[in-house]
Write a structure and sequence with these properties.
The complex is a heterodimer of chains A (397) and B (312). Chain A is elongated. Chain A has 397 residues and is α/β, with parallel strands linked by helices. Chain A contains 17 helices and six strands. Chain A folds into two domains: 7-43 and 202-394, no CATH class; 51-181, abc type-2 transporter like fold (3-Layer(aba) Sandwich). The longest helix of chain A is centred in the middle third of the chain and has 31 residues, at 247-277. By secondary structure, chain B is of the alpha/beta class. Chain B folds into two domains: 3-223, Rossmann fold (3-Layer(aba) Sandwich); 229-295, Alpha-Beta Plaits (2-Layer Sandwich). In chain B, 36% of the residues lie in helices and 29% in strands. The longest helix of chain B is centred in the middle third of the chain and has 16 residues, at 168-183. The chains are: A alpha/beta (397), B alpha/beta (312). The complex binds adenosine-5'-triphosphate (ATP) and magnesium ion.
Chain lengths: 397, 312
C-alpha cells in the first residue's frame, strides 16, 4: 500500500514538472474561458436581450385589442422583449415556426364575452420549442398580465399545454375581484408580479467555465496515458515489477496519481475561474466538487484506456486529443447541445463532458444538490468501464 | 558454501526462437559469477527470468531457497537488479530517483536517507544529486542506474551489461564498485560481452552462445579449453574477408578472430604457423605493423568453441 502511494506521489511530481502538461491542463482552459466568456458576454445577459415576441388578438369584442396594447406598453417588458402587436394568427404561427418569433400570446375570440360573464379565459401561448427558456418567461408575463387584469371579476386563466412544455407548473391562477367596478385598469400590469420564476440565466462566462473545465479535465487522461507509455519505453515498469512492488501497486499508484492530478486541476480551475473571472458556480459547492471528482475519475479511466489504445506517446498523442475533442463536442463544450443535429443526441450519453457539464450548468442555475446524483453515477460508471478495459489490455513492456 | 542461485533446465522460447536453451548453473554465496556472450546470446533473457519478469518456458530457478514459480515476492526481496537499459525517471533528480527505488524495496525514514547518501557517494555524484537525471551524461546515468540497484543492499545483485557505452574512466569506477560490493559479501551475477571485465571480476564464468552455455568454470579452467594453444595477434591496417579466408586456409590455424585492425590466430604451434601467416598477409596486400604471441584468453576460448569472434 505504501508502495502504491509512493508511485502515485512520484507520478504527480513528474507531471507537475511537465511544462507542456501544465500549460494544456491549466493555462489553456483559463485562457479559453476568458476569451470565449468575454467575447460572447452579453448574449445571455437579460438587460441586453431583445427577445422577439408578439401579441395577437382575435377577440370578437372590444376588450381584446386594448388588452394587447396595454401589455405591449409595459416598460419592464419592453426592456426584455421586442413586442409586436399583430392580428393574423396564421402569420405569427409561421413566424414562430421559422424562428422569427420566440413566443406569441394569443387572445381568444371570446375574450370580451368571457370577461363580462366572469367565465374562465384561456390565453394561448405559441412558442418555439427550441427556446423553452425565453418562451417560459413570456408565458409568465402572460400570466402576470392576466393576474393584473383587475376588471372587477374573477378570471381563471389556464395557459394550456404550452406551459407544461415550458416546464412550468400548470397551476391555474385565481384573481380576486377588485372594487373598481366595470372599468378595466390595464396599466397595473407589471412583470414584477410574475408568480412563476423563470430559470436563472447562466451567463456566457459561466457556460464556458463549465464547458472548458469539463473538456480540459479529460486532458489529464492524456498525460496520464503518456506516463504509461513513457514507463514502458524507459523500462521503469519492468524495474518496478522486478522490485517487491506488485502490479496492483503499480496500476493503483499510477491511477491514483492521475486521479490526484485531475482533482487538483479541477480545484485550480474551479477556484481560478471564480476568483479571476467571477464565474458563478451556483450555491452548491459540494455538488460542484462531487461532479469534479466524478469527472476526474472518468479521466483516470480514460487514461487507462488511452494507454492501451496507443503504445507510444506519439500514438497516444494522436488518439487522445481526438477522443477528448469528440467527447467535448458531443458534450456541448463547443456549441450548446440544443444546436446539435438530432442524430448526434444518443451519442452524447457516452461523453463524460456531457454529464459533467450538464451537472455543472444545473447547479449554476441554482438547482438542488440531488440534480447531480445521476450524472455523477454515470460519470463513475463511465470511468469504471474505461478503467476495466484498460486494465484488461494493459501490457508492461 | 551454499548455492544461493540455482538455475536448472532453463528454457525460454519466443515462438520459434529458442532464446535460452537448457541453461544450468549455480552461484555460490559470495561469488561473482560471469555470464559472457555475444549479442543475442540470451543473457538478458536469463536475467529477466531470474528477476521474475519473464516466465520460463521450462525449468526452475531457486534464489536463496525461494522458487521463482511461486515465491516471487521473496525472490524479488533478495535481489537487486541493474538493467541493461537505463531505467530511471529523467524528470526526477538523482536523489529522488534513488529514494524512489529505495522505497520500492521497502526502505524508509533515516534508513532510506542513509542508503541514498551512500549510493550517491558510491556513484561519485553526491555533489550533483539535486540535478535532474535528464541533464546527466550517459556515464553518470549509468552510475545512478547501478546505484539504484544496490542501495537496498541486496543479497544477490544481477548486473546486465552495466558498462555498455561509457567512457573508460566511468567503466573502471563501475568495475571497482562491483569488486567492493562483492568483497563486502554481495553475490553478483555479471553479464557482459567484454571478456576483460569478466576475467577481472568473476570467480566463475559461463560462456553463452545462441541460448546455450558452451563452457563454464574458473578462468583457468576455461583457459584449458584452449590448452596448449597459442594466440598470434597481428596488427594490420585493414582486414578484408579475403584475408580472413586466406589465413583460415593456412595449415595449423584453428581459428581466426578479427577485431578492428587486429587479427588473432589460434594455433597449437605458433612457430610453424608464424612464417606462413606473415607471408600470406603480405601476399593479400595487408600492411603488417606488429606481430605478438599472447596468452590465450576468453576470447580465444570463445573462438575455439564457436569458430567466431566474441565481438561483432
Ligand atoms: N520479448 C522477446 N520476444 C521475442 N524475442 C526476444 C525477446 N526478447 C529477446 N528475444 C530474442 O532472444 C534472443 C536473446 O536475447 P537477449 O536479449 O537475451 O540477448 P543478450 O544476450 O542479452 O544480448 P545483448 O548482448 O545484445 O544484450 C535474441 O535473439 C532476441 O532477439
Ligand atoms: Mg542483453
Amino acid at each position: 500500500m505504501t508502495r502504491l502511494l509512493h508511485i502515485a506521489v512520484k507520478d504527480m511530481k513528474i507531471l507537475l514538472r511537465d511544462k507542456a502538461a501544465f500549460l494544456i491542463m491549466l493555462g489553456m482552459p483559463l485562457v479559453l474561458i476568458f476569451i470565449l466568456g468575454s467575447a460572447l458576454s452579453g448574449v445571455g445577459e437579460s438587460e441586453n436581450v431583445d427577445i422577439p415576441v408578439a401579441i395577437v388578438s382575435v377577440d370578437a369584442g372590444d376588450q381584446g385589442a386594448p388588452f394587447a396594447e396595454a401589455i405591449a406598453d409595459v416598460e419592464e417588458l419592453q426592456a426584455v422583449f421586442n413586442i409586436e402587436v399583430l392580428d393574423d394568427v396564421e402569420l405569427v404561427r409561421s413566424k414562430v415556426e421559422k424562428g422569427d418569433l420566440t413566443a406569441v400570446l394569443v387572445i381568444p375570440v371570446g375574450f370580451t364575452e368571457a370577461l363580462a360573464a366572469g367565465e374562465p379565459i384561456e390565453l394561448e401561448v405559441l412558442q418555439d420549442p427550441g427556446s423553452e427558456m425565453t418562451a417560459g418567461i413570456w408565458v409568465g408575463v402572460a400570466r402576470a398580465a392576466a393576474a393584473n387584469l383587475s376588471a372587477g371579476q374573477i378570471v381563471r386563466i389556464t395557459v394550456e399545454n404550452t406551459l407544461a412544455r415550458a416546464g412550468i407548473p400548470q397551476s391555474p391562477v385565481t384573481f380576486q375581484q377588485g372594487d373598481t367596478g366595470g372599468d378595466i385598469a390595464f396599466d397595473a400590469v407589471s412583470v414584477k408580479q410574475l408568480d412563476v420564476e423563470p430559470e436563472k440565466q447562466v451567463e456566457m462566462i459561466d457556460y464556458y467555465a463549465a464547458g472548458q473545465t469539463g473538456l480540459f479535465l479529460l486532458f489529464g487522461a492524456m498525460f496520464g496515458a503518456f506516463g504509461f507509455a513513457r514507463e514502458r519505453r524507459e523500462r521503469t515498469f519492468a524495474r518496478i515489477l522486478a522490485s517487491p512492488a506488485t502490479t496492483m501497486d503499480l496500476v493503483g499508484g499510477k491511477s491514483l496519481g492521475i486521479l490526484g492530478v485531475a482533482c487538483a486541476q479541477f480545484l485550480v480551475l474551479y477556484l481560478g475561474t471564480t476568483l479571476l473571472f467571477g464565474v458563478d458556480w451556483g450555491p452548491t459547492p459540494s455538488g460542484i466538487l462531487l461532479v469534479g471528482f466524478a469527472e476526474a475519475w472518468a479521466a483516470t479511466g480514460l487514461a487507462m484506456t488511452l494507454s492501451v489504445l496507443g503504445k507510444t506517446e506519439r500514438a497516444i498523442g494522436g488518439i487522445g486529443p481526438t477522443v477528448i475533442m469528440l467527447f467535448a463536442a458531443l458534450g456541448g463544450s463547443m456549441i450548446p447541445v440544443d444546436m446539435m443535429p438530432a442524430w448526434m443526441l444518443p451519442l452524447q450519453s457516452v461523453s463524460p463532458v456531457y454529464w459533467a457539464m450538464g451537472a455543472f450548468l444545473d447547479l449554476m442555475r441554482g438547482e438542488a444538490f440531488s440534480v447531480v446524483l445521476m450524472p455523477v453515477g454515470i460519470l463513475l460508471g463511465i470511468g469504471a468501464v474505461l478503467f476495466t478495459f484498460g486494465l484488461w489490455r494493459l501490457r508492461y513492456e | 558454501m551454499t548455492d544461493i542461485v540455482q538455475v536448472r533446465g532453463l528454457v525460454k522460447r519466443f515462438g520459434e526462437l529458442v532464446a535460452v536453451d537448457n541453461v544450468e548453473f549455480t552461484i555460490a554465496e559470495g561469488e561473482t559469477f560471469g555470464l559472457l556472450g555475444p549479442n543475442g546470446a540470451g543473457k538478458t533473457t536469463t536475467i529477466s527470468m531470474i528477476s521474475c519478469l519473464l516466465e520460463p518456458t521450462e525449468g526452475e530457478i531457486i534464489v536463496d531457497g525461494h522458487s521463482i514459480r511461486n515465491e516471487q515476492t521473496a525472490v524479488k526481496r533478495t535481489l537487486g537488479v541493474v538493467p541493461q537499459e537505463i531505467a530511471l525517471y529523467p524528470m526526477l533528480s538523482a536523489a529522488e530517483n534513488l529514494a524512489f527505488w529505495g522505497r520500492m524495496y521497502g526502505l524508509s525514514g533515516t534508513g532510506l536517507k542513509k542508503a541514498v547518501d551512500e549510493a550517491l557517494e558510491l556513484a561519485g555524484l553526491a555533489d550533483r544529486s539535486k540535478e535532474r537525471i535528464e541533464k546527466y551524461s550517459g556515464g553518470m546515468r549509468r552510475r545512478i542506474n547501478i546505484a539504484a540497484g544496490i542501495l537496498h543492499k541486496p543479497k544477490v545483485l544481477l548486473m546486465d551489461e552495466p558498462t555498455v557505452g561509457i567512457d573508460p574512466q566511468s567503466r573502471n569506477h563501475i568495475l571497482e564498485t562491483v569488486k567492493n560490493l562483492n568483497s563486502s559479501g554481495m553475490t553478483v551475477l555479471y553479464t557482459s560481452h567484454y571478456m576483460e571485465e569478466v576475467e577481472y571480476l568473476c570467480d566463475r564464468i559461463a560462456i553463452m552462445d545462441h541460448g546455450k552455455i558452451i563452457a563454464m568454470g574458473t578462468l583457468n579452467e576455461l583457459r584449458d579449453v584452449v590448452g596448449g594453444m597459442d594466440v598470434i595477434s597481428v596488427i594490420v591496417g585493414e582486414v578484408s574477408d579475403g584475408i580472413i579466408t586466406a589465413v583460415n586456409a593456412i595449415e595449423g590455424v584453428e581459428g581466426v578472430n578479427r577485431a578492428n585492425g587486429v587479427i588473432e590466430v589460434l594455433t597449437p604451434s605458433s612457430s610453424s604457423v608464424l612464417g606462413r601467416l606473415v607471408a600470406t598477409l603480405e601476399s593479400e596486400g595487408a600492411h603488417v605493423t606488429s606481430v605478438t604471441v599472447i596468452e590465450p584468453n576468453l576470447e580465444s576460448v570463445f573462438l575455439r568453441l564457436t569458430g567466431k569472434s566474441l565481438r561483432d
